[in-house]
Design a protein that fits this description.
By secondary structure, the chain is mainly alpha-helical. It has helices at about 1-30, 40-50.
Length: about 80
């Protein structure tokens, strides 16, 4: 009984690892997989590539690439005021 439980656990862990690796590989092929290919998607990809490629005039160091967004996607400029 104990041996069967260990085999089942090993199988579940192997399956989980395989799914995690597959999801990671998919994310690497298309950075915005749920987006339709169009001008907005291409502009975002171009912007990210320009700002993260060293030597590019638009390059931003890692510490300058931080933004905080609220629920509707806009930047928080001050402390949020919550509504009910």
């Amino acid at each position: 009984m104990k041996r069967q439980t260990l085999r089942l656990l090993a199988s579940v862990l192997a399956l989980a690892a395989g799914l995690a690796l597959a999801a990671h590989a998919l994310a690497q092929t298309d950075p915005l997989p749920s987006w339709n290919d169009g001008p907005a998607k291409q502009a975002i990809i171009k912007f990210v590539q320009a700002t993260t490629t060293q030597g590019n005039p638009a390059f931003l160091p890692l510490g300058e690439r931080i933004a905080t967004f609220d629920q509707d996607g806009t930047l928080w400029v001050e402390h949020p005021i919550y509504t009910r």
